[in-house]
UniProtKB/TrEMBL annotation:
Coiled-coil boundaries: none
InterPro entries: Metallo-B-lactamas, RibonucZ/Hydroxyglut_hydro, Sec-metab_biosynth-thioest, WH-like_DNA-bd_sf
Gene symbol of the encoding locus: gloB_3
PANTHER family xrefs: ENDORIBONUCLEASE LACTB2, METALLO-BETA-LACTAMASE SUPERFAMILY POTEIN
Protein name (database record): Glyoxylase, beta-lactamase superfamily II
Keyword Lipid metabolism attributed: no
Amino acid sequence: MLTKVADNIYTKVVPLPNNPLREINSYIITGSKNLLIDTGFNRPECEEALMSAFTELGIVNTDLFITHLHSDHCGLVPKFATKSSTIFASETDGELINFEVGNLYWRMLDDLFIKYGFPKAAFGRNTDIHPGRKYCHDARVDFTYVAEGDVLKYGDYEFEVVLTPGHTPGHACLYDAKKKILFCGDHILGTITPNICIELGVENPLKDYLDSLAKIEKLDVQLLLTAHGTPIEDMYGRIKELQKHHEERLEEVMQVLGNQWKTSYMVARDMTWEIDCKDWDDFPQPQKWFATGEAISHLQYLFFTGKIAREENNGIYYYKK
Ligand SMILES: [Zn+2]
């Protein structure tokens, strides 16, 4: 379904089959030049959905803005970019998006997770089952990198780039101050809490994320357009909820940790999760991965604030109170 959310701005809900996220919102801004914000996975279902939106709007050519490196946001960039398209992303995530093509990125991500306590898979690589890898774009992208404060003009809008590291290291939002509209990607979501996870080159993603929430809280926003779920009525209320959620999670992690050395995987196993599974053993492997990523970001935050200790043993991090 294609929905008009403001003058010349349309939402296309793109299905993400067999994925807990279920859907992504791609946004299309029309005018003398068009802009597509985020694309869906590199899978035919996503491609068909976007194609139908383009047909409905009579669009042949579009520029693209990619909020961040996750494959549900950038998987179809090579398919929807034409020779005349300008493709925007932050330099940090743009570089990682190109690094995701091929094996090296996924091997390094696997090794990073093992270092942070995720068990080595009995067969092959953990990242082989990662949905981000399965439905990743298959070609490098010639990005035009955007930096904080850059302005992109589409339709009657003047969108300023606001960098919001946390969900990914180079996550970027678009903000029109006059119209009070913010495209926030996965930085703020209504129905779920954005996953905060370790990434190559990052050590304290939760600190980055909380700083970015505080940054967005200062903007005057009336229409918040998120990449998953319905638009959020009260951005400021939702930011407060997300801040509270992470405070509570930090307390829970402290309690679960106790004063025995534990890996992030052991902590994740003992945390509470809203998932339709009997117990930890019943979690699908990708969900164990995301849960461990969440535990890592909270443990690292506590470690950097001096509340817990960290020790490296045989190349693996252990934490305790
Ligand atoms: Zn994401």
